Amino acid sequence: MNQLQSMRVFVKVADLGSFVGAAGALDLSTAVVTRHVADLEARLGTRLLNRTTRRLSLTESGATYLERVRHILADLEGVEQMVVARNHEPVGTLRIVAPVVFGLHSLAPVVQSYAQRYPDVVPDVTLADRHVDLVEEGFDVGILVARHMRSASIVTRRLTTGYMTVCATPDYLARHGTPTRPEDLLRHSCLSRPTEQGGGEERVFTGPDGEVRVRPSNAIAANNTEMLRQFALLGMGVAILPSYLIGRDLSAGRLVRLLDEYSLPPIEITIAYPSRLHLPAKVRTFIDHLVEHFQPGSGSARDARGAAQRRAVAEVSATDDLSAPEVTDDPLGSGGTTRRVARVPRPRIAASQF
User: Fold this and answer.
1) pTM for the whole structure
2) What are the pLDDT digits (tens) for 302-354?
3) CB within 8 Å of 17: residues ≥ 6 apart
4) Inter-CA distances, 250 with 165, 185, 241, 243, Å
5) Which residue segments constitute the domains of the chain, with CATH numbers given?
6) Where is 64: in which H helix or E strand?
7) Distance from the first to the final alpha carbon of the chain
């Protein structure tokens, strides 16, 4: 029989001094109660209770055993209550993992406001630009940008959308001119990640005449987006950077948004966590807090967007040009390539940035 249950039954028998009374209190039959005590005595190899026709009494071993068992059961109950409380009340260490640049520029205010709201939770933040396995590495919550996370048993939930922005400093544009079409990037110094990290890859712009595919050549490469931002701020070239990184730079005029009539594919920002089953309160409340922070129209979202918000783009009228795609190799003699795909334009809606 279950040893823990047998211990509970023994304590009840000792407290009530009766097998019958213990059976009634525990909603068990008298035979089952008797069997539990007998199994304990057999396991221990000693008699715990003296039985007579009129009363029960503890043996010396029984009294010692009863005292220790009370402590064990009390400790167990305390542990169970603590675990239940952790599932129902936000408490304990919350391990969070996020990409480096997103974490530095967008996550800190969320963690600060969450910690103020739930002081019994201790956030433990890890920033990593690599594939992460939440389960293997013991993280409670992860934030995905460009799918930098993997696990066989995670649940994901969309958080918000970011946008890639072509930008440069006013000084750089004064010296080198302002690109007005994606093809113009081929004659500019472009700042990007190394080739092995996707730098120098073909960029797909959507504009008034459909898709334009351009493969700019790197003038400077860096494996960190924040470093590319620093290069751009120093006037070293044109960069394509995420909106959550440069919103304040655009607002302050340190960087200028380029190619407003063209857009690049959006970046989906996603929350990930190990399982929906028995989700601890600290995880559940942090996820809700994240969603609240980034939801459209919230004060936090408006502050983060600031002047980085894309100007509204008027609906583009349809065109009858359905000619086959035209491919031109290096039309500007700059070592890059461009390809324009003519198609009927779709109406465009200004994309919010955060």
Assistant:
1) 0.59
2) 444 443 343 333 333 333 332 333 333 333 333 444 454 444 333 332 233 33
3) 55, 56, 57
4) 10, 19, 11, 9
5) 3-88 (1.10.10.10), 92-161+268-304 (3.40.190.10), 164-265+317-342 (3.40.190.10)
6) helix 60-88
7) 60
